[in-house]
Amino acid sequence: MIIGIDVSKDKLDICILSAGSTEPEEETVVKNEPDRLREYLGVLCGRYGPANLLACMEHTGHYGLVACMGLEGAGITY
User: Fold this and answer.
1) pLDDT in tens, 15-65
2) Between the CA of residue 51 and those of 47, 71, 73, 77, what are the distances in Å?
3) Are 37 and 57 in contact (CB under 8 A)?
4) CA distances in angstroms from 11 to 20, 21, 32, listed in the order given
5) What pTM value is reported for the model?
6) How far apart are CA 50 and CA 42, in angstroms?
């Protein structure tokens, strides 16, 4: 599964795609806060397993730090 993350100061717009698909499996918005993201990533890891997830996002300076730290902590490649 591919996790696409659009990073902004206050929120993370997240889209989950199956590899090779153009139709989202899931779309959600998470506050750009460590606890909120950790909770959401825990659900994804429970559903798919961290080894089956790959995340991508644009570089937005320090606004992407929460996402990077959360992905790293969850064991998701990004």
Assistant:
1) 999 988 889 999 999 999 999 999 999 999 999 999 999 999 988 889 999
2) 11, 12, 13, 8
3) no
4) 27, 25, 4
5) 0.90
6) 9
